[in-house]
Amino acid sequence: MKQFVSLLSVGVLAVLMFFAPGENAFASEGTATKAQKQVLNIAHRGASGYAPENTMAAFEKAVEMKADMFELDVQMSKDGELVVIHDTTVDRTTDGTGSVKDLTLEEMKSLDAGSWFSEAFADETIPTLGEVLDEYKGKSGILIELKAPSLYPGIEQKVADELTAHHLDKPENEKIIVQSFDHESVQKFHDILPEVPVGVLLGYNPEGISDEQLESFKKYADYVNPSKSMIDASLIERIHDFNMLTHPWTVRDRESANFLLEVGADGIITDYPDYVDPRP
Ligand code: G3P
Ligand code: CA
């Protein structure tokens, strides 16, 4: 009888183990989900590890390298044109000097924006946002950073107008996101074009990101994009708990790319799109 009871117990246990998802079942499901999760590969200022940042050559390289999106920085010229450049002066990335806000578009267009990187790119010029949208709408996702917007009153409306002129004010199939370190500017843009997703950029802060901050971002933002130095699995989980996604920046080595894939980032902003390889 004893033997029968213990045989029965083993049988019951076996049946339970078969039907109940054990720890391993969850573990392998978790792995599968991670492997299948689509992580956006976002080329920072274009594929700026391989071509001069924020030029058509860098955006073309991003598309060639099959990045899902490219990031760019937008500012305004003296005569009110939207130009794609990172620094608030032209000194580092062109053969000219002076502040972006003090130069006309014509003056900026006469500059060489490629030779500082390599002579092979001597023909590159500072693009306008309109030129980039003309060329890449429908070919690539575009992550637009409003750079130093407090220097350019009205830039939010201008960017909104440019997106609207390109029928990108209600993006459906196209992936367009607008972001800034200036969160007031992000809110201003969001009020003008509420259907375009927006993100808040955050630099490193040793105090981390509080729930109060996340609660307030959630009122208008879809993305919280901190420096990669702030990221761990728990921050990503908290951002997701507040129903937002995260695209940390800026990856310049394979180890950081692998780390961000492992902890579940939704997108990775990188100078080297080939470093982001989500395959298991
Ligand atoms: O997209 C994030 C990243 O571009 C922010 O830093 O200085 O490269 O504009 P920065
Ligand atoms: Ca940027």
Low-confidence stretches: 1-35
The largest pleated sheet is described as:
8 strands, mixed
| Count of individual domains | 1
Average pLDDT reading: 89
**Small molecules held by this entry:** SN-glycerol-3-phosphate, calcium ion
CATH class: Alpha Beta
CATH superfamily descriptor: Phosphatidylinositol (PI) phosphodiesterase
Determine Rg (CA atoms, Å).
Answer: 23 Å
Please state the structural category.
alpha/beta
- CATH topology, by name, is TIM Barrel
For the record, the CATH architecture stands as Alpha-Beta Barrel
Shape: globular
Strand content: 5-15%
Measured between the Cα atoms of the first and last residue, the distance is: 51 Å
Order of helices and strands: HHEHEEHHEHEHEHEHHE
Oligomerization status of the protein chains = single chain
Strand-helix topology:
Blueprint: H1 2-19, H2 23-36, E1 40-43, H3 56-64, E2 69-76, E3 82-84, H4 105-109, H5 129-136, E4 141-146, H6 155-165, E5 176-180, H7 183-192, E6 198-202, H8 211-218, E7 223-226, H9 233-241, H10 254-263, E8 267-270
Parallel strand pairs: 1-2, 1-8, 2-4, 4-5, 5-6, 6-7
Antiparallel strand pairs: 2-3
Helix pairs in contact: 6-7
Bound molecules: SN-glycerol-3-phosphate and calcium ion.
Residues 44, 71, 73, 86, 145, 201, 249-250, 269 line the site of SN-glycerol-3-phosphate.
